[in-house]
Structures are given as C-alpha cells and as structure tokens.
Amino acid sequence: MTSPANLGGRPRQPSLAQLRAFAAVAEHLHFREAAAEIGMSQPALSGAVSALEETLGVQLLERTTRKVLLSPAGERVAARARAVLEAVGDLMEEAEAARAPFTGVLRLGVIPTVAPYLLPAVLRLVHETYPDLDLQVHEEQTASLLDGLAHGRLDLLLLAVPLGVPQVAELPLFDEDFVLVAPKEHWLGGRGDIPRQALQELDLLLLDEGHCLRDQALDICREAGRDENTPVTTSAAGLSTLVQLVAGGLGVTLLPRTALRVETGRNDQLTTGYFADPAPSRRIALAMRTGTARHQEFQEFAAALRGALRGLPVRIVKE
Predict the structure, then answer these.
(1) DSSP string, 36-48
(2) Where are the alpha helices (DSSP H) in 224-309?
C-alpha cells in the first residue's frame, strides 16, 4: 500500500463520500448491500473505498471472491469513520435547525399499528400549521425505526412507549384502551365490564413477531394470568387481516381504540367488548434523540399534536 499522497507537503484528506462508502461496507461486509444502502453504484463504491485506502496508506479490507473482511486497521478506521459521519450529521442538523423552526425536512417514522389511524390528524396539522415543513413519513416496525433514529435516517418517531432505549427521549401524547374484538354472537360481545381474566382461555389472534402490539397483547395476557404455554395458533401481518380472521370465526383479538372504527366499521360479522376499569391500555408518544438540535421544535410539535388528537377516543397526556 502506498503512503498518503501529499499536496504542497500536506497529507491529502479523505472525502466524506469515501468515509460514507467505507462505513457502509464495514457495516454490511458486502459491496452490493452497501451500495444499495447509500445509493451508489458498486464500481463507484469500490473506487471510493480504494481511494480511501490510498489516501490513508493502509489496507482497510481483505477481499476474496466470496466475502469481504475488515483488516485490523479497517476495524479501527471504521469506528472513527462512523464518528466523523455522525458529527457531520449533527452539524447539518444544527445548521438546518438554526435557519428556522418547522422548515426543511422532517423524517417521521411511524409504527404500522398507529400510522393509518393517526396520520390523518398529523398530516392535517402539518398542512394547516406548518406549511413550510417538508414531512416525509416512513412506516416501519419499532426495531427498524429505532435503528433509523440512532443512525440519523429518521428525525422523529411516533410509536408505543416505554422504549427503555438509551439516548432516546420520549414526548408522551396519549393513552388509549384496548378493546376486545370477537366474532358476531360471541358471549363477550357488547359487554362493558369484561374482566381481564377472561383472556385466560380465549382463542387469541395476534400480529406477527416484530410488532410491538403483539408484545403488548402478550403482556396483558400474562398479567391476566393466561398460561404462557397456551398456544397462539394464528397470526397476521396487519390489523386488517387480523380482524378478517376474527370475522371468520378463528378467534378473538385486541385492538387499540384508535383503530376500532377503521378496522371494524365495515364488517357486520364482528362484535366488540370493553374491559372493566382499569382497562388494559398503551401509551403513544413521539421519540427523538436526546441530543437533537431540534429538541425545542419537537416539544412544540408534540404539544400541537396533543391538541390535534383531542377528537380521538384517547386520554391526552398533560405536559
């Protein structure tokens, strides 16, 4: 490996594009996946990494026909490259926030069990109150959203809490109860005083693994005394499918109240029942990085969003 080239006696500096390319390869250990992540062609990516190696004067990768490995020097440089890129991201965020609040791009991540029911209110708020804000919505599961927030791909999240994740601050919006949804003529249909213990023996239908709503439903069932070995034989990728399975007589499910009208309003083969107080519930909040330069802006956005959601069947959290 050649030594770093000199320009006027000073070492040549690596570019951000080279660092971004190398950091992507270091994360994926795969050129095609790394190129797809950062929107660069594979030849350009390979060229950027090679140029970085030449600039630094060290071999960063061990390339074979089957795989890519980090050299010892590559492991050390990868950590530094990520730190530099994060610092540059913070710099850009600081500059954007300094220009003016509620302008520029806001990349909002939303979980699937919230997006269809709250986004109309969110979009209306942005359109009417923050017309200069370029809102970009990303619907993903919780783990993916948190990863996007940590790596700067997303700015703000709308999801169920608590998260218990370091460096993530939560701005609570509201609490909402869960409602039992069952096939028509089910013995619990129409009741307003269902004890949680009723969940112990019911045929319960849940979302697939990875959805936080599945974990919340299982927690509720454990609190109700349901045997953890009681099988959940059927699951679905979304709430709409889940409700159709219930209508088909395969079991019952739990829906958050914000989803109830949308998911059950068009199906006459369903019935609902409400739990006795205190009903099982979940809390929905905005989440942001603790060190974000837009902290004040996001707090103001949370306050405005609480006002916009008052027409929903929820209990707004007072801040």
Answers:
(1) HHHT--HHHHHHH
(2) 239-247, 257-264, 295-308
**What is the rounded CA–CA span in Å between residue 248 and residue 78?**
53
Residues 6+ apart with CB under 8 A from 276: 192, 193, 194, 195, 196
Q: Is the alpha carbon torsion for 51, 53, 56, 60 positive or negative?
A: positive
Please say whether the beta carbons of 2 and 54 come within 8 A: yes
> Which single residue is written with the structure tokens 């007589």?
249
Domains of the chain (ranges; CATH) run: 16-93 (1.10.10.10), 101-174+283-316 (3.40.190.10), 175-281 (3.40.190.10)
Instruction: Say if pTM beats, i.e. exceeds, 0.70.
Output: no
Specify the pairing of strand 61-63 against strand 253-256.
unpaired
Query: Tens of pLDDT along 126-181?
Result: 999 999 899 999 999 999 999 999 988 999 999 999 888 999 999 999 999 999 99
Radius of gyration of the chain (CA): 25
- Rounded CA-CA distance 254/264 in Å is 12
Contact at 8 Å (CB) between 288 and 89? no
Q: Which helix (DSSP H) or strand (DSSP E) does residue 108 occupy?
A: strand 104-110
**Tens digit of pLDDT for each residue in 42-56?**
999 999 999 999 999
Burial class (CB in 10 A: 0-12, 13-18, 19+), 57: middle
What is the token pair recorded at 51?
């140029």
**Closest-CA residue to 100 (of 62, 61, 132, 65):** 132
Looking at residue 199, the DSSP 8-state letter turns out to be G
Rounded CA separation 31/68 (Å): 8
Contacts of 249 (CB under 8 A, 6+ apart): 183
3-state helix, strand, coil in the chain (%, to 5): 45, 25, 35
